From TrEMBL:
Source organism, top-level taxon: Bacteria
Protein name: Uncharacterized protein
Organism whose genome encodes this protein: Selenomonas ruminantium
Amino acid sequence: MCNLSEGIYERGMSQGMAQGAENKLIEVIMNLWNAGTDMATIKIASGWTEEQIMKVVKKNKL
C-alpha cells in the first residue's frame, strides 16, 4: 500500500474503533438505566454528564 492508502486505512480504523467504543458505552449506560441504577452511579461509570446520559436514554428507550 502507498503512504496515502495507509493513512486513509489507519484513519478509518481509528474512527471505527472509536465509534465501536462509544456504541458499547451507550449499551452499558442503557443496561444500567434499565436495571434501575441511580444517575450518580451511571455518571461515575460512564464519565458522561447527566445531559449526555439523558440524551442517550431518550433516544434508545424501548
